[in-house]
Each structure stands twice: as structure tokens, then as C-alpha cells.
Amino acid sequence: MRTIDWVDGAIELVDQTALPDRCDLLRIGTVDELVGAIRRLAVRGAPALGVAGALGVALAVRDEPDPVKAAARLRAARPTAVNLAWAVDAALGHLDGGFEAVLAHALRIRDDDIAACRAMGERGADLVRELTGRDRVRIMTVCNTGGLAAVERGTALGVVQTLHERGQLTEALALETRPLLQGARLTAWELGRMGAPYRLVADSAGPFLLARGYADAVLIGADRIAADGDTANKIGSYALALGAQRAGVPFVVVAPESTLDPATPTGAAIEIEERDEEEVLGVRGVRLAPEGARAANPAFDVTPHDLVTAIVTERRVIRPDLGERP
Ligand code: MRU
User: Which Pfam families match (predicted)?
Assistant: First the structure.
């Protein structure tokens, strides 16, 4: 199954707001519809956002009076995942060739993502074995970094999938990932479809479970990796990295080269998306907090590079713990 694709002149994508109750396909035919889908996380996850952005530029070139202005709206729909801006800019680079050239480039980004995720799965699974010295492993992860966050297979969850296919996965421990529950809704759904053994844990249990030896490695994805290796990812990643270091558990970031951002020198320069307070004050439309309560809702955090054991891309393994930088 593909999470996002170009079908008969429009973008088709799995509506991630409806999962796990329903697996609905959305057909997106305009840039404004796509901006809305990105903002409400109907399509989400850095690699999928990249493909969406590039396909969105094709829609802009075909239908919008000012495609560059429409592409700018798309580019700004979410600020943290660099893949969105990167893919929009790359597709705009083919503007002179018209709609066909832009679409061809967007489809290349889609195909490259499929290949990159396969390569990261293999390399990441090999690395986990090397770092842990174990034939069978327990992996902790946060958010959703599976096929739903990419096109076919994912990044960190793609490694978990490869480990499972190799018979090397004892258990995946997935953090539920408040406030929007990408772990409980999406990662659990994907692990179930894979037939992989897993348990969900509350986000706050992650570091303690690492201290008690429940996982052999932590694998996360990334939304943007700065030039020094500092890594922006779903809120909760930093706490896991601190817990992993204290427990002596490898902390591995799995992301395609397109998530590396050499133009951002350190994590301090990464813009962190602040989302609507309502996402924290309730859950899936049910109010939890008393009237008048306020909330802070950073969608991501930044893990400093000295807490990162390794970064796995489709081309290489970078070892920040050994002084290497992307
Ligand atoms: O807010 P989201 O659900 O888009 O956040 C997604 C993440 O933080 C993922 O870990 C990241 O984009 C990598 S997806 C392979």
C-alpha cells in the first residue's frame, strides 16, 4: 500500500486523521486542499510531507495563476520538517519545463523515498545488531515513522519492520505520543498489520523502562537534522535520548539524506512548530482539562548531537558519538 501517490491527475493519500478506525483515501485536487490536509495532519511525517509538497507544486503549476505564490503557501504549511521545503524548492527548480517536468520530478522524489526506506531498513537493522551485539532485540520508538510517514516503508519503523522480517525482533515498545497519539493510533496499526510483537507505553514511561532494561535500542525518525547532528523530532524524543544515555542504550536516528539540513548550523536554529492548545486540552474531540485551562503544545523537540549514537541514512551511517558530523 502507498500512503501517498499521484492517481489520475490528483494526489491520493491515506487520511491519517481517520486511522485506526477507518483507512480512508483522500483525493486532493488543489493546493489549498493540500495545505489544509498538511495542517491537520491528514498527511504527516517528514518523507511523506516531502512527496506531498513536490506533488503539490505540480498541482500549482497546472492550475494556479501564480504557481510560485501557491508553492510558498505549501512550503509554509508546517515549518519544522525540512523535507517539505526541500521538496517544494526542488520541484520549483523544474518550473521552466512546465507541468510535465515538475510532475516527473515529484514522482522521482516518490520513487527515491521508496528506495531510500528499503536501504535504511537494511542498514539500520545491521547497525542495531552491531551496536547491541544481540541476535534478537527489543526496540523502543516514538511517534510514527512507518510507511504512513513515507510512501511504502518507513524510516525508524522501517528498520523495525526489517528486523521483524529477519526474525530478529523480540518486541517493539511504542510510545503513545500525546497529544495526537501517532504512536497509539498509527504505529500500533502498522505493527499489527506487520504481525510484529509490540506493546504501547505511556510517553512518560519511556525513560524509566529504559532504566529497567526493557529495550536494547531506541530508534527514532527526524524532521530536520542540523549541520552539527542536532536532531528535531516528535516531542518526547529528547526525554528518550536522556533516558537512553543514562541507561547505556544506543539511541539511533533513522532519516533520509533529504532530512539533513546543512543550512541550519545547530538545533538552536530549528523552528519548532507550536500547535493549537486544544490538542493538549482534550483528546480526539473530548475535553479533558477544566474550562479556562491553557496549554503549551510544541510539536517537536531537539535532541543534542552528543546524545545521538548514530544517524542512519540511505547512503551511510554517521556516528555523532564518535565525533562524526553529517
Ligand atoms: O507531527 P508529525 O506526526 O508529522 O511528526 C512526525 C515525526 O516527528 C516523525 O518522527 C518524523 O517526521 C519522521 S517520519 C519518518
Answer: IF-2B
For 257-279, b/e burial (b = at least 16 CB within 10 A) is ebbbbeebeebeebebeebeeeb
Instruction: Assess whether the C-beta atom of 301 lies below 6 angstroms from ligand 1.
Output: no
Q: What's the structural domain count of the chain?
A: 2
The DSSP bridge pattern shows strands 217-220 and 198-201 to be unpaired
Quote the crossing angle between the two packed helices 46-63 and 82-92, to the nearest 10°.
30
Residue bearing the CA closest to ligand 1, atom 6: 45
Residues 255-313 pLDDT 10s: 999 999 999 999 999 999 999 999 999 999 999 999 999 999 999 999 999 999 999 99
Residues, the chain: 326
pTM over 0.85: yes
| 73 and 13 in a common domain | yes
What is the span of the domain harbouring residue 157?
A: 122-322
CB-CB contact of 80 with 233 (8 Å): no
Q: Which of 41, 151, 234 to mutate to test the pocket of ligand 1 (most atoms within 8 A of CB)?
A: 234
Q: Is the peptide bond before 320 cis (omega within 30 degrees of 0)?
A: no
